[in-house]
Write a structure and sequence with these properties.
With 369 residues, the chain is of the alpha/beta class. The protein folds into 2 domains: 2-207 and 337-367, P-loop containing nucleotide triphosphate hydrolases (Rossmann fold); 212-333, Udp-n-acetylmuramoylalanyl-d-glutamate--2,6- Diaminopimelate Ligase, Chain: A, domain 1. It has 15 helices and 16 strands. It has helices spanning 15-28, 53-62, 68-71, 80-85, 93-102, 128-135, 148-163, 184-192, 214-220, 246-250, 266-276, 303-311, 323-333, 342-355, 358-364; strands spanning 2-8, 33-36, 39-40, 43-46, 49-52, 74-75, 109-113, 139-144, 168-176, 199-204, 224-227, 238-241, 257-262, 292-296, 315-318, 366-367. The longest helix is centred in the middle third of the chain and has 16 residues, at 148-163. The chain starts with a strand and ends with a strand. Mean pLDDT is 88; it is low at 279-288.
Length: 369
């Protein structure tokens, strides 16, 4: 059985994207493939069980049979870290990870996804470097974009893995603008070479992969739906904050923009609904219509404004939090993939198949120990 630890230089670098594509590649080549996320920071409840959201995603997309305690043995809900430091957590977390990992005996390959950078989890004794060393698994480090930053980040993280005796099998750089700079792959490869880190591939930037649907927005901000609009599966391409005069607001709103605005700014809301409804297809000639509204502060618009939203058939949700808080929540949604994102998942699978040498990555995976 071969194993591979998929690490990263920080959050939102593309581990989930790479994991989805690599699992597709491994399974498509006929390998009995397992997936686990030993330590998860984003816990959800699925089928009555807590698990990291990436374990839920992989289970749903690939129909993986292992139960969540195997795929996601340790997850860190809110307050867990303080409890651990206070000595209130008595479970042997390392044993929990080792036992879960041993369950995959008999698989051809197990893809193990880390959390954040190499040191994340150290506070509970389970940093990425510690877990990879404990399981005897080689690591691939993922970074994103640019030239200097990804090389610096990869080298820094590789040093911590090396300190723990973990073999760094190579690196992947995500969100590379190959259209503007097609030579970046060769530059990155040359920049990593003096550090003994092979570049295993680059993934080109695809804005849609950082774009949630309206349904994801509604679920993510836990808002009250005022009007669903025509299509909750519609992908947004940008976010604008409605904190300026209505005329200036329109200059910053495109046809697929989500607008976050206080619910008592009825002047802004009516300007957007008018623009949205000025053509029968829901888009005005200038393109400054917007795709939906998140109304903040718990301020429910008056009856006439709500009717204008319905007449324009414009998505709208109401939340009690302030605009800054909601904008931060939406930003977090911009980089996550969910099982319902069929279009994004299909694109990810194609992206990885077209840009990463899956067979070469299989070769660097090693038996544990």
């Amino acid at each position: 059985m071969r194993h591979l630890y998929l690490a990263a230089t920080g959050q939102n670098r593309g581990k989930t994207t790479a994991a989805l594509g690599l699992l597709e590649g491994f399974i498509g080549r006929g390998h009995l493939t397992g997936f686990m996320k030993p330590v998860g920071q984003r816990t959800v409840i699925d089928e009555g069980e807590p698990a990291d959201e990436d374990a839920v995603l992989m289970k749903a997309v690939f129909g993986l049979p292992e139960p969540y305690p195997v795929m996601s043995p340790v997850h860190i809900p809110r307050g867990f870290t303080k409890s651990y430091i206070a000595g209130e957590v008595v479970a042997d977390l390392g044993k929990r990870v080792r036992d879960a990992h041993a369950t995959f005996a008999g698989h051809d390959i197990v893809l193990i996804e880390g959390t954040g950078h190499a040191g994340v989890g150290a506070v509970i004794g389970l940093s990425n470097a510690t877990v990879a060393a404990m399981l005897g698994v080689p690591a691939i480090i993922i970074s994103e974009g640019g030239v200097g930053r990804p090389i610096d980040e990869i080298v820094l993280n590789a040093a911590l893995f090396a300190r723990h005796g973990v073999h760094v099998a190579g690196a992947i750089v995500n969100k590379v603008d190959l259209d503007a700079q097609p030579e970046l792959g060769a530059v990155l490869e040359a920049g990593l070479m003096p550090h003994g880190i092979p570049l295993l591939g680059v993934l080109p930037v695809k804005p849609i992969l950082s774009s949630p649907t309206l349904g994801m927005i509604l679920e993510g901000v836990k808002g009250e739906s005022l009007h669903a609009g025509p299509d909750l599966d519609r992908v947004i391409s940008g976010v604008a904050i409605g904190a300026m005069e209505p005329g200036h607001m329109l200059e910053r709103v495109g046809p697929d923009t989500l607008v976050i605005v206080p619910g008592d700014r009825e002047d802004v809301i009516l300007t957007l609904t008018s623009a949205h409804g000025s053509r029968g297809d829901g888009r005005d000639p200038s393109g400054a219509a917007g795709v939906g509204l998140v109304l903040t502060g718990g301020y429910r618009p008056g009856a006439a404004v709500l009717q204008a939203i319905r007449d324009a058939d414009l998505f709208a949700a109401l939340v009690p939090e302030d605009t800054y808080h909601v904008a931060s929540e939406v930003h977090d949604l911009l980089v996550k993939t969910h099982a319902a994102d069929r279009e994004k998942i299909a694109l990810i699978k194609t992206l990885v198949a077209d840009n990463l040498d899956v067979d070469r990555i299989l070769e660097v995976a090693r038996p544990a120990g």
